[in-house]
Amino acid sequence: MEDVLEVYHRPYDPRFPQICMDEGSKQLLGEIRESISMEQGMPKREDYEYEREGVFNIFGACEPLTGKNFFQITSSRTKEDWAYFMRDLVDVHYKDAEKIILVMDNLNTHGPGSFYKVFEAPEARRLAQKLEIHYTPKHGSWLNIAEIMLSILARQCLSARIPSIEQVQEQVLAWQEERNQAHITINWRFTTQDARIKLKRLYPLIEK
Question: What single-letter DSSP state applies at residue 201?
Fold first, then answer.
């Protein structure tokens, strides 16, 4: 926990951007009966029944100090999916960075080993060397700012029923562009000192 909190209080340096990464899944839902459009004085009305159209996965990365956000929609959440998403971060979005300071959950797909499953060893090693990884502790995913961003995205962009991945991609891209243009940063205020006071019960007891 203290390792992640230390990362959040480093000063901004474009050579070493601080990126938080997370992923989640959501159902694709279609309408069985056509909804009634919103009218003056009346909200949009939908039938309670819906049709399941499958599930999609969303990878999200955010840079809290600049307000940049990047999302990718996939039909699965494999090591391959994660490896390609991370390669885009390294080679497209942060190609000029010396090293990406990466905070993420410790899932079995999240790690340099996934690069070696997808790419040749030299390429996998190149990508791994571009990352300084800081994992959130078990039961500590609340420390990952990307989880906050995915929650905001879900409320503002994905709360309605969406029947296809194509529509999800279109809506998420539009939301991402609008959010990035607004440069909405996140000011993380919870410090290591706060943790040692408020979460004292989580620290081991030292018998004197």
Answer: G
